[in-house]
Predict the 3D structure of the following.
Amino acid sequence: MNRKTFKGSRILLVEDEESLAAGLNYNLQEEGYQVYWVQDGQKAIEAVRQGSYDLVILDIMLPYLDGFEVAGQIRSILPRMPILMLTARTRMVDKIKGFEQGADDYMTKPFNLEELLLRLKSMLRRQQWYRESMRSKLVYGFGDNRVNFENLSCSNGHQTFMLTHREAMVLKYLIDRKETIVSRQELLENVWDISAQIETRTVDNFIVRLRKYFEVDPSHPVFIKSVRGVGYIFHEKKI
């Protein structure tokens, strides 16, 4: 996709560091994005409830509500909103926590502006892929499981629950390629974007969570199976 594809996209920027926010605001507008800037977690939630956005850039260290709390609340309001988290924290445990709260990508400060712009375009592109891939089937069933890819609500015959946007994207990617082996690298490139340099164990952690949701016995999966040394395959077991 060319540079103009996402021009006009509305971005909510949540950042309390004024100099950084001012620079981001200017550069994002130069790229053709529409930017609305707030400086604390409470205002971020108000903005999401009142406005319409295509993507959120979210700092973790914020007044009133931190970025993890804000991400969780955004997910409850708009399950499919792309969220890019910004933080000075570099520990993998913080990245995993961010993804578990619903972040789609994660950048540590200081960061390269060009890389951030590429990440934004990748996230908007993946959002477009996800939206287009849903046109054929919004609700998908396998075994006793039902997944609504529009609002991310699910049931497994025993309970109802919500997926994060990333979990839904991973599952949708596997389902769209059912009975075909999907490598970790392929998932990284098409669901995470390889430029994010996410460790492969993060992919594995997502698979573990999906199995807990949808497998009767997660230690012996029948739907999301591992292919040793390669990746995963979604097997649609008939009932």
DSSP finds eight helices and twelve strands in the chain. The domain at 10-133 is CATH 3.40.50.2300 (Rossmann fold). Residues 45 and 70 are 7 Å apart (CA to CA). The chain has a mean pLDDT of 86.
